[in-house]
Amino acid sequence: MEASIKEIDPLTLKKELDGGEIILIDVREHLEYEEEHISRAQLFPISNFEPRQLPDPAGKTLVFYCQMGRRSTNAALKWAKHVGAAEAFSMKGGLKNWKDQGLPTVTDNKASVKVEEQTYILSGIVILVALVLNQLFSEWFLVIPTAIAILLIISGIAGHSYLSFLLSKLPWNR
What we know:
Blueprint: E1 4-8, H1 10-18, E2 22-26, H2 30-35, E3 36-37, E4 42-43, E5 61-65, H3 70-83, E6 87-91, H4 94-100, E7 106-107, H5 115-136, H6 143-158, H7 162-168
Parallel strand pairs: 1-6, 2-4, 2-5, 5-6
Antiparallel strand pairs: 3-7
Helix pairs in contact: 5-6, 5-7
């Protein structure tokens, strides 16, 4: 039997977090966490998520969150399966919803160009270069913007940008 996911809205989560009833688990990637996160959140990136590494809740409730809520749902299910729990908790709407509710975050003001912004810039440059090459040399260069469009569509559906993930591995983003 698969565990059920219970979504906690940000305002309820904030109240319970302040009351010490919650252990908050951020499953976004390291760079996303450094750029902005919720105070007292512990980072366990989904890219190498291992439920056995999570802290023992010791009577508290583990609540997972990510940027929009998809990755945290996957992590919560994986954790519940590992420990045999009937239910797991994820913050509804992720960090975006938390910020939309006007709740505070910890931000790194030193961050230069965020990975998400680098993704947009790189995608735009590659598409423009491919279109110029298409005009000058061959229509086969249209494969490049098509591939980028497909990647962006898949990222939108999955709720996680694979191109951003690759960019986050580059030396200047570590």
